Amino acid sequence: xxxxxxxxxxxxxxxxxxxxxxxxxxxxxxxxxxxxxxxxxxxxxxxxxxxxxxxxxxxxxxxxxxxxxxxxxxxxxxxxxxxxxxxxxxxxxxxxxxxxxxxxxxxxxxxxxxxxxxxxxxxxxxxxxxxxxxxxxxxxxxxxxxxxxxxxxxxxxxxxxxxxxxxxxxxxxxxxxxxxxxxxxxxxxxxxxxxxxxxxxxxxxxxxxxxxxxxxxxxxxxxxxxxxxxxxxxxxxxxxxxxxxxxxxxxxxxxxxxxxxxxxxxxxxxxxxxxx
Length: 276
Prior knowledge:
By secondary structure, the chain is α+β, with helices and mostly antiparallel strands. The protein folds into 3 domains: 17-104, no CATH class; 108-198, Rossmann fold (3-Layer(aba) Sandwich); 204-276, no CATH class. The protein is built from 10 helices and 4 strands, in the order ααααααβαββαααβ. It has helices at residues 3-13, 19-52, 61-77, 86-94, 100-104, 123-136, 152-168, 213-220, 224-229, 232-247, and strands at 140-144, 186-190, 205-208, 252-257. It has a 4-stranded mixed β-sheet with strand order 1-2-4-3. Helix 2 packs across helix 3 and helix 6 (123-136) crosses helix 7. 13% of the residues are buried.
C-alpha cells in the first residue's frame, strides 16, 4: 500500500476527531446540563408557589407544574418584556377557582411620607407615589376625597395620589427612569367619614360589599387609633347599611370617580340606584 493510500485510510477512520464533531458533542452535553438545570429551576419555583397557594387551588403539584409551564410559554410568546402581566393573566384564566387577590398575592406596601399629622404634598412625596404606581402597574387607584372638613392627612393623601398618577404617566422624569411610564385606568375617591363626602351633584359608584362585610369589619378593627376616640366601626357599618338599603342590597360602599367614564354602548351601563 502506497503512502497516499495509507493517509487516505487514516483520514477515513479519523472523522470522530474532527473539531465540528467535537463541538457537537460539547453542545449536546451542555444542552443536557441546561435541561437538567431548567427542570430543577421549574420544580423549585413551582414548589414554592404551590406551598403558598390557597386551599381553593385543589390540585396536585404535578398538575400545577403543567399549568404554570403553559402560562410561562404564553408569556414568552407574547413578546411582552419578561412576560409582564401575561403569566398572571394566564394563571387567572386557567385557575378560575382561586380568588384573584389570593392567586396574585395581594400585598400592602407602606410609604414613609412624613408620619401622622406631618404629611405634605412635596415634590419628593409626589415622586414616591408616582414611583409606586409605576412599580405596581396598577389599573385602579383608590384615595380619600379632598373635602376640607376632615383630617388634614386625608386631604394631603388625596392630593399626592392625584399628582402621583399624573407624574407616573409622564416620560422624561429622571427620578423615575428606573420604571417605565404607566397610565392608570381609573382613579376613585372614597369618603372616610360622612363629612368627607363630596357635594351630591356628581355621579358615584355604589359597591355591593355584602359578601365581604365580615372581613371588612375585621380590617377596620385593626385601626386601633380610631377605635379609641369614637365608635368608628359602628359609624362605618351604619353608613354602609344605609347605602346598601338605598341600593337594594345588605351593605354597600360608595366611590367617587375623578373622571368621566367611556363606554361603547348603553348596554354596558350597570344598574342604577333608583328604588324610590
